[in-house]
């Protein structure tokens, strides 16, 4: 049989409903069982608070009013006459792995602005952002400001790298709540451009506007002279 999982790490919180799902396919109908923790492999049984459900090929483990002791690794095992396969899903109170939303240059200095999204059921307490020039090996550590989340469980962290020089950079970030640190985000690569590029663009735009203004003034002077000539011709006639 074959097992696919949508999320290897599922963030949740105490008192919330949690859902773990694995999709199982196979030529012969597999039997699916859930276990908790790789070492003990304690079978997960259905109860008033724990629901084992199935929808087509999707097998769902649903925890109502999640408790702290529910956190941990869950094994989805599929077995038939051809063999067995398993996948591991981690249920955690820690923040999800941050995801880069954008990396853009803002302002006249062309400083990179990095924006990440992270999911957390508990308030975010701290971030750690690491960045470096791509060709060097020394990471620089920063602590971006923590802001409240107007989007419920989705937190946004935005930070401007002001002390960079032109070149290509890589960065990664992690988040912390009362349950601990998340994993670092995937490495993101972004350029830090020359500020002169922006200045030259602005100067070119200004030059074009000046040329347009001069052209408009010349057209106005020609129009006034033409009207004056017509009036004089009419007067003498």
TrEMBL record:
<dbReference type="GO" id="GO:0043025">
    <property type="term" value="C:neuronal cell body"/>
</dbReference>
<dbReference type="GO" id="GO:0050808">
    <property type="term" value="P:synapse organization"/>
</dbReference>
<dbReference type="InterPro" id="IPR003961">
    <property type="entry name" value="FN3_dom"/>
</dbReference>
<keyword id="KW-0677">Repeat</keyword>
<dbReference type="Pfam" id="PF07679">
    <property type="entry name" value="I-set"/>
</dbReference>
<feature type="domain" description="Ig-like">
    <location>
        <begin position="1"/>
        <end position="92"/>
    </location>
</feature>
<dbReference type="InterPro" id="IPR003599">
    <property type="entry name" value="Ig_sub"/>
</dbReference>
<dbReference type="InterPro" id="IPR013098">
    <property type="entry name" value="Ig_I-set"/>
</dbReference>
<dbReference type="InterPro" id="IPR036179">
    <property type="entry name" value="Ig-like_dom_sf"/>
</dbReference>
<dbReference type="GO" id="GO:0007156">
    <property type="term" value="P:homophilic cell adhesion via plasma membrane adhesion molecules"/>
</dbReference>
<dbReference type="GO" id="GO:0008046">
    <property type="term" value="F:axon guidance receptor activity"/>
</dbReference>
<dbReference type="GO" id="GO:0030424">
    <property type="term" value="C:axon"/>
</dbReference>
<dbReference type="GO" id="GO:0005886">
    <property type="term" value="C:plasma membrane"/>
</dbReference>
<keyword id="KW-0393">Immunoglobulin domain</keyword>
<dbReference type="InterPro" id="IPR050958">
    <property type="entry name" value="Cell_Adh-Cytoskel_Orgn"/>
</dbReference>
<dbReference type="InterPro" id="IPR013783">
    <property type="entry name" value="Ig-like_fold"/>
</dbReference>
<protein>
    <recommendedName>
        <fullName>Ig-like domain-containing protein</fullName>
    </recommendedName>
</protein>
<dbReference type="InterPro" id="IPR036116">
    <property type="entry name" value="FN3_sf"/>
</dbReference>
<dbReference type="InterPro" id="IPR007110">
    <property type="entry name" value="Ig-like_dom"/>
</dbReference>
């Amino acid at each position: 049989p074959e097992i696919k999982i949508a999320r290897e790490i599922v963030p949740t919180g105490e008192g919330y409903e949690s859902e773990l799902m694995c999709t199982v396919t196979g030529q012969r109908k597999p039997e699916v069982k859930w276990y908790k923790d790789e070492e003990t492999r304690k079978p997960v049984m259905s109860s008033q608070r724990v629901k084992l459900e199935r929808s087509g090929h999707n097998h769902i483990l649903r925890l109502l009013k999640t408790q702290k002791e529910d956190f941990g690794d869950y094994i989805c095992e599929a077995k038939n006459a051809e063999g067995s396969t398993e996948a591991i899903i981690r249920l955690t109170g820690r923040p999800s792995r941050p995801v880069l939303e954008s990396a853009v240059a803002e302002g006249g200095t062309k400083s990179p602005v990095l924006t990440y999204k992270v999911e957390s059921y508990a308030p975010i307490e701290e971030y750690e952002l690491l960045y470096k020039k791509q060709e060097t090996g020394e990471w620089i550590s920063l602590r971006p400001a923590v802001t409240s989340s107007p989007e419920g469980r989705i937190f946004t962290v935005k930070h401007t790298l002001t002390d960079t020089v032109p070149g290509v950079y890589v960065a990664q970030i992690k988040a912390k709540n009362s349950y601990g640190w998340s994993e670092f985000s995937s490495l993101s690569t972004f350029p830090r451009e020359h500020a002169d590029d922006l200045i030259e663009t602005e100067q070119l735009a200004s030059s074009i506007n000046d040329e347009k203004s001069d052209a408009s003034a010349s057209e106005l002077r020609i129009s006034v002279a033409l009207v004056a000539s017509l009036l004089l011709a009419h007067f003498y006639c």
